[in-house]
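Researcher: Quick test of sequence recovery. Tokens follow.
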């Protein structure tokens, strides 16, 4: 799949958008929404970008990723997801010597299944996502092997203000498994603002156990546009020391 063709999807879909209720966006935070995009409508969720910093073997690595996710509703409980990053910058610094590399990252195809439940207060809902990530990124920006992922998000809304989720995921890369368990605790502030706290508990087949903690905010602009910001910091000695990003999400559909 050519990553650059992903950017054409909003333009191709716009003339055929249907009357539909705006969906819940997958950004930001661990996991994904427990609802799907309405049938034959499109949501575009874009990092602006995401930054990740780590220091393996004492060498500083920094990666900027303009990650893109396109969500196409297939009707009922199904949603097709296409992901990728057309622009990435990888920086490496060792003993005062700095190098960098520009290119595109790996791309993915996923299928979400959201069997029911509601976003109303007091309800429970869940969704599952199966995804394949292809190792078609540039050198230093690719996993170098196909990755298979299977995840689920469970959501509880005790009232109209609070929202709690639990995300679990398994990544299979080569012969190594990576497990992630991430609870989040969210709260709305008025009609347009929301914030959340998050903890990511990760068991990496290569690196061992990791813990990331942080949170983020989202700002709804009308019914079709959302801006977000988030940051996670490492707790312990393994994994990235910082993950942070800005993002924008757009729904291409006309409201009922």
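Model:
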């Amino acid at each position: 799949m050519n990553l650059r063709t992903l950017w054409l999807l909003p333009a191709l879909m716009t003339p055929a958008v249907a009357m539909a209720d705006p969906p819940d966006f997958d950004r930001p935070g661990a996991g994904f929404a427990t609802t799907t995009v309405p049938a034959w409508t499109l949501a575009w969720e874009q990092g602006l970008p995401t930054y990740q910093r780590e220091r393996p073997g004492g060498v500083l690595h920094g990666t900027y990723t303009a990650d893109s996710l396109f969500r196409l509703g297939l009707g009922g409980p199904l949603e097709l997801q296409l992901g990728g990053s057309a622009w990435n910058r990888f920086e490496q610094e060792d003993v005062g010597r700095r190098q960098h590399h520009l290119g595109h990252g790996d791309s993915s195809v996923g299928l979400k299944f959201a069997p029911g439940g509601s976003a109303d207060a007091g309800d429970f809902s869940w969704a599952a996502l199966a995804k394949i990530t292809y190792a078609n990124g540039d050198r230093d920006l690719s996993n170098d092997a196909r990755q298979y992922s299977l995840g689920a998000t469970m959501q509880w809304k005790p009232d109209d203000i609070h929202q709690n989720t639990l995300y679990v995921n398994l990544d299979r890369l080569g012969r190594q498994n990576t497990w992630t368990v991430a609870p989040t605790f969210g709260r709305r502030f008025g009609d347009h603002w929301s914030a959340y706290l998050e903890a990511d508990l990760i068991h990496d087949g290569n690196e061992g156990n990791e813990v990331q903690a942080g949170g983020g905010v989202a700002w709804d602009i009308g019914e079709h546009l959302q801006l977000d910001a988030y940051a996670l910091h490492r707790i312990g000695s393994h994994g990235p020391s910082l993950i942070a990003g800005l993002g924008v999400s757009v729904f291409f559909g006309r409201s009922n």
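The first helix runs from residue 9 to 13.
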